[in-house]
Amino acid sequence: MSHGEFTVKRRTLPVAAALAATAALLLTACGSGDDKASDNDKIAGADQGSETPKASASASGAPTEDKPDGVDLSLPKDLTMVFDWPKPKDENEAAAMDDAANFLRAIYRGIDKRTTKDAALTTYATGDGLHYGEVQINAWIKGGWTATGTERHYDVSTRSTTNDQAVEVAFCVDSTKFYGKEIKTGKVLKTEPSIKDFDYFKIIMTKYPTADDLWQASKVYVQTKAAKCQ
Questions:
Q1: Are strands 145-160 and 79-83 parallel, antiparallel or unpaired?
Q2: Domain count, the chain
Q3: Is residue 90 part of a domain?
């Protein structure tokens, strides 16, 4: 798998019906160009700094495994996020990969709780990563939707910067069994499976300076309709 830098293109958010139908976290669409590594093989966005998490975790009855950093990441019972990710041997890459998954969980938790101020998002995101999460959550709130079904994450790869302060976590996402649901009516907005259900993510995780094992999403790149993920 090539790790060349992506050329990022901003898209406007899809219209309400389209977003509800696809039910995918796709704000930033990226093209990979010639998909070859750049001369200096830098990780895109790896110079992004970290910000202090803005909220503390609130107490809840969630099981311990839902609070990896003392932050509640519990999700609704009808929403399942599957991460078929073998753990890397490198400790930093393993920790960054775990927190990339927590970042995605935090977004869906924010959608479920109807807020961008939940402690989970502000713990696992910073900079552009935090902005990405906030825009996604607000779009779902505005549309009157929540998420249901199963979203699968697989074919993961990781690589570190030379100073070990940033890790790129790249992976595929399969949303064929993942849907939007209207909150008012409870109607599940199902669609026929297609290439639109497959996406390729690159998340730049930066090390939080005062914690040994906390990593925050600072950049998010998404390639939609990713044939390589089918």
A1: parallel
A2: 1
A3: yes
Contact 137, 116 (CB under 8 A): yes
Q: What is the pLDDT of residue 210?
A: 83
Closest among 98, 226, 203, 76 to 150, alpha carbons compared: 76
Q: Which contiguous run of DSSP H or E holds residue 7?
A: strand 7-10
Token digits of residue 202: 């690159």
How many helices and strands, by DSSP H and E, does the chain display? 4, 8
Answer yes or no: is 12 within a domain. no
229 vs 199: CA distance, rounded Å: 7
pTM of the predicted model, to two decimals?
0.75
Whether 149 contacts 79, CB under 8 Å? yes
Q: For residue 128, what are the CA distances in angstroms to 28, 91, 125?
A: 11, 25, 8
Q: Which domain range does residue 85 map to?
A: 79-229
CB 226, CB 67: distance < 8 Å:
no
Reported as a single tens digit per residue, the pLDDT across 64-117 is: 355 667 899 999 999 999 999 999 999 999 999 999 999 999 999 999 999 999
Indicate if the alpha-carbon torsion angle 193, 35, 12, 143 is positive or negative: positive
Q: Which domain CATH number covers 141?
A: 3.10.450.50
- Residues 225 and 230: their CA atoms lie apart, in Å, by 9
pLDDT in tens, 158-185: 999 988 899 999 999 999 999 999 999 9
Angstrom distance (rounded) from CA 127 to CA 54: 12
